[in-house]
Amino acid sequence: MPLINIRLARRDVPTSAQQKAQLIAGVTELMHKVLAKRPESVVVIIDEVDPENWGEGGEPVTAIRKRRQASTSGGGCE
């Protein structure tokens, strides 16, 4: 039984139930096509991670997002 774990960072606009259903269906289909796995045996788990619970490059994601948002909205001081 293949077990696929998808981890998504929570966003301001949440991932909808429909989007999650599409991910589950798409990953299941991919496992069937690429590895010839029976679709009914494929298990897909979606974990949503709060941005304050992970980081990138030694920096919390919340800080990275704030900086990126400020630079794209013209809020930067240069």
From TrEMBL:
Origin superkingdom: Bacteria
Active site: 2
Entry keywords, A to Z: Isomerase
Protein name stated in the entry: Tautomerase
Family listed: Belongs to the 4-oxalocrotonate tautomerase family.
Top-level EC class as recorded in UniProt: isomerase
4-oxalocrotonate tautomerase-like domain sequence ranges: 2-63
Molecular function (Gene Ontology), one example: isomerase activity
UniProt xrefs under InterPro entries: 4-OT (IPR018191), 4-OT-like_dom (IPR004370), Tautomerase/MIF_sf (IPR014347)
Disordered: annotated span: 55-78
Organism: Rhodoferax aquaticus
Pfam families: Tautomerase (PF01361)
EC number: 5.3.2.-
Family matches, as Gene3D superfamilies: Macrophage Migration Inhibitory Factor
